[in-house]
Amino acid sequence: MKIYGDSISGNCLKVKWTADFLGRSYEWIETEVLKSASRTPEFLALNPAGQVPAVILDDGRPLAQSNAIILHLAEGSALIPADAYERARMLEWMFWEQYSHEPYIAVARFQVRFKGVPLTELEPKIFDRGKAALQRMEDGLADSPFLAGDRVSLADVALVAYTREAEDGGFRLADYPKVVAWIARVEQALNIT
Amino acid sequence: MKIYGDSISGNCLKVKWTADFLGRSYEWIETEVLKSASRTPEFLALNPAGQVPAVILDDGRPLAQSNAIILHLAEGSALIPADAYERARMLEWMFWEQYSHEPYIAVARFQVRFKGVPLTELEPKIFDRGKAALQRMEDGLADSPFLAGDRVSLADVALVAYTREAEDGGFRLADYPKVVAWIARVEQALNIT
Description:
The structure is a homodimer. Chain A is α+β, with helices and mostly antiparallel strands. Chain A has 2 domains: 2-73, Glutaredoxin; 84-190, Glutathione S-transferase Yfyf (Class Pi), Chain A, domain 2 (Up-down Bundle), CATH 1.20.1050. The first copy, chain A, has helices spanning 10-22, 41-46, 66-73, 84-114, 124-140, 154-163, 177-190, and strands at residues 2-5, 27-30, 54-56, 62-64. In chain A, strands 2-1-3-4 form a 4-stranded mixed sheet, with helices on one face. Chain A is globular, with a radius of gyration of 16 Å. The model of chain A has no long low-confidence stretch (mean pLDDT 97).
């Protein structure tokens, strides 16, 4: 398998962590978004959406969208709950991540850390919705060590990627103690640093 | 099953269409976003994210996020391809829908049709990205009658919901003839009007 990814992108790291956890071998092809490497004709032939990550599976077929890729790689593994309801809750968190978390938490980080935008120039909406997302996670972790049950799942892989970097975008993780404890728990379960 | 949904919301209609296609019985509880019905304490106890649709399954447990709900309802049905790669491509389209299509195509429609915002006052980014999304679909339908293979799947359910309403937000569907033909094909396959 070939993984086209940018090492600064949480979406790309999700794929790396999942493959590593599953012991899947792959070639990592560094694809730097800031150098427009995801907009070349070669890359667009692989993923017409022009987004990283994208993979070429062992049989030569392409696949894109971080959460679709990790769901495919992890089919039948311990990263996907066997129980149908827990599996559905895992998917609920994963779709929520792309709609209600990534556009604020990841975008704030990218703008501030990698584009040099001052915190004061970010849209207030980004902070309001990013804080709401972190609070939603804090509440979701009230009764459960992981997001979709008692064991680490792809919901945790998907959400930890940018949550652990949230301070780069001006969010204060100390305000969300259950989230802080969960980040450490997920990092340990996935063996990532 | 109880479906809490707003009839003007494509995300909610996805759940209705899937349940109808599968012959699942349900009670539809109209939950009007414009009247803040998704922000009441009762609703927030059901879905802390404050978004419709949300369902209460037959066993009394809640589930949210349109695409997670339809994936759960349709498990084992013809709406999810049996082939692992086609299933992964279906998921790729579904995650792409929430990240790269809904925030432009659905948001433009909502602002213009339901909030009364003049087309000229929408952010130009909404049009640029919305048009890119429609072109991505046009290209994706070049060789295939449906988005994830030869049969209708949840990818089509997820994407048709707002694509068929795109003109309400100022997009011109006639510029995307394969998309227009696909909308009719999906409407027929799902028996929706």
